[in-house]
């Protein structure tokens, strides 16, 4: 059973990676977060530790960590970071805002030049401490994050 689960997760990672080449291309500046040095970020702000209700580990080994990320309508997740580069497969989302550790807006989806279509696959560099807020009253944000350990 465990082997089957690992095999299915492996297939999901391959599909997500492959899908990233077929998705619409967004301006890299849209997702250009200030990163800094991940070695300087507090370990207790790792996404799985700081925001466990939003980040569930599906698979982890020495090369990759695959997370299921969920943000309910109206929810603002706790402050956290992602220390490794990631590919995100966003299955569904409404409007959202992402804030830095001081509460400044990093990204507001309502300001995109055109609405995003889902599913959507994007690449992101490590993300310094931040927190996202789901502005939708009805739509859950749901994605798979594949973190590539270095």
Shape designation: globular
Number of domains: 1
Q: Could you give me the name of the CATH homologous superfamily?
A: Jelly Rolls
Extended strand count = 9
**In DSSP terms, counting alpha (H) and pi (I) runs of 4 or more, how many helices?**
2
Which segments are poorly predicted (pLDDT under 50) over 5 or more consecutive residues? 11-30
The averaged pLDDT comes out at 85
Largest sheet entry: 5 strands, antiparallel
Order of helices and strands: HHEEEEEEEEE
In percent, how much strand structure appears in the residues?
Answer: 35-45%
Alpha-carbon distance between the two ends: 29 Å
Q: Please give the share of residues in helix.
A: 10-25%
Examine the secondary-structure arrangement and name the CATH architecture: Sandwich
Strand line-up across the major sheet:
1-2-9-4-7
CA-based gyration radius: 15 Å
Structural class: alpha+beta
Q: What is the CATH C-level name?
A: Mainly Beta
CATH topology: Jelly Rolls
